Amino acid sequence: MTIYSFDRLQQFALNLFIKIGCSRKQAIEAAQVLLSADLRGVDSHGVARLMGYLRLYEKKRINPQPKLSVIHETPSTAVVDGDAGLGLVAGPYAMRLAIEKAKNVGTGWVAVKNSNHYGIAGYHAMMALKADCIGISMTNASPLVAPTYAKERLLGTNPISVAIPAGEEPPFVADMATTTAANGKLEILQRKNESAPLGWLQDKEGQPTQSAQGVVEGGALLPLGGDRDHGSHKGFILASVVDILSAVLSGANYGPWVPPFVSFLDPNPNPVGEGIGHFFGAIRIDAFRPASEFKNNMDIWIKRFRNAKTINEINKVIIPGDPERHMEQLRRKEGIPLLNNVVKDLQSLSEQYHVKF
Amino acid sequence: MTIYSFDRLQQFALNLFIKIGCSRKQAIEAAQVLLSADLRGVDSHGVARLMGYLRLYEKKRINPQPKLSVIHETPSTAVVDGDAGLGLVAGPYAMRLAIEKAKNVGTGWVAVKNSNHYGIAGYHAMMALKADCIGISMTNASPLVAPTYAKERLLGTNPISVAIPAGEEPPFVADMATTTAANGKLEILQRKNESAPLGWLQDKEGQPTQSAQGVVEGGALLPLGGDRDHGSHKGFILASVVDILSAVLSGANYGPWVPPFVSFLDPNPNPVGEGIGHFFGAIRIDAFRPASEFKNNMDIWIKRFRNAKTINEINKVIIPGDPERHMEQLRRKEGIPLLNNVVKDLQSLSEQYHVKF
């Protein structure tokens, strides 16, 4: 483990994106989205993914100079073609459009097709906060998850993020995979060679397993709930709705057709759409009630839940977004710790692309 | 258990609503929403609730002659004041408005305050299907659910329904409580004196319990996920988002302030809003892409998931809405079975209100 400053890592990501041909403007934005994951403690989605993005670029599966375009729109909706570029760039473009529409007609909803991985869902949702909007962000992803009763991987971990402004209190920012546990958490156990709780995954025959290697060995992550008795059909519903809004509505690939993030697996030769899909929403608060009234009530809501009577003295009720905000404050000041294998990846990218690390 | 025809039960509910002063138009609609629960097999939300509604009416907590009004709107949004009437009436009113707005500007989003219980979430979401819209419906409810780490009941079972049109295939209709198990399922175990799976509820000290009486004895239902290791913070997030969109956005009561459904418990003397809240959405498909294209792809999606390789021969992957649709076909033909205590309730209402059962 080595600690790097935020500025140094962001500069490296930025220079790397410029090196492969991104415009300066897009590279700045992509690096910012990427680094927000490292800052917020979602280590699996930050610079640890740079190698993955670059390998896809090398396979010509990521276009470094996408021309983003609106291919259809109404006053409150739009479909954006990501032109096979970085989702890190298509995401903010689409979210800005959603916010613009919310300013005009109360809400804005933008579906994106022909995109790639867009970093953490929460970054995009949080863009809405400054405009006094509720922000919503979701994306489909490479199939790793088996529906209830299935032994096939047909869905991604398809996250949902919702960011809601408050007044004196910090905003409510939820960002969750629709599985029992995010793949990033499983990867941590894999590296430590530890076992996973029952309910996180199944083996390739669909049987419960605690082996953290289960997914690598042909098994699957389980939808939130884990099994039927504990509501896994609801996790399946959530992942399905994310898939349909992100991809069936936009014209992207869905379900098992979503292209794999890893470059050593080829996309399905008979796609049902273009690239992967995202879905964004912005809801202007004062399209419902005065923003000040809403924020006062959000403060009451947050305080009441934060101060709930708890089962023990140690664990308080966690308001969504609190842990990530504390982590960001800490890491901006003290730096971002990277695992040795991530450092090695970045060093190897530095040599390969002649970009100073 | 006795079986009654759909027509007979619907006529009884209709006559009862008229007897307490509902307009004929509102009574027809309320009876239809209520009975859709019995048809679809959600027995806890159908005529079994009539006694509950009537007791609230007797306590003057339900206004039989509400004047529904739009108190604020933009091209894609509105807030409706339910005037303390039946949610069974406010729901369809608000959903029609959402669909109208979707026709005009692509999507429509309507928050409702000052309402009461609105029946099954799915009825309202499904209203959008005929208009080639995706329908969304959610509501907050009396506090029965403890957030992760809390021993207080601060949230309702806050359901979410999403209805999505398909082509040759029947629509995708999800309707789920944001708890591990809906309260209705627990009530079935209570009646049978059976124990519940771990992860469904906790006792009044916040400890896991399998006693189905746990909630009655001061315990709480658990958010989807069950415990922190299995993602209960995500169920807490979902229930919170439903609460905030339904009530903080509309001006209804939220969290622990939501008035109890049972008439023997009084509402909080210091409310933070008016009545309970709902939130509805309609997304016009062709505000994104031609409806025929979308529906073709939904057919592919549904067929692929329905035919997924399964773990065993018995359990196939269930497309949301399939079991309820089959139940409705069956019960329209063969009638609706009612438990003896429900029949007794209806007979006693029949005598009290001089309405033929």
Throw out a few tags for this protein.
seven-stranded mixed beta sheet, three-stranded antiparallel beta sheet, homodimer, 357 residues, 2 domains, globular, Wheat Germ Agglutinin (Isolectin 2), domain 1, Ribosomal Protein S8, Chain: A, domain 1
Indicate the percent of residues in helices of chain A.
Answer: 25-40%
CATH class of the largest domain in chain A: Alpha Beta
Q: What is the CA-CA span between the terminal residues of chain A?
A: 16 Å
Q: From the helix content, strand content and strand pairing of chain A, which structural class follows?
A: alpha+beta
Looking at CATH, which topology of the largest domain in chain A would you report?
A: Ribosomal Protein S8, Chain: A, domain 1
The largest chain-to-chain contact, stated as pair and per-chain residue counts, equals:
A-B, 84 and 85 residues
| Assembly context of the chains | homodimer
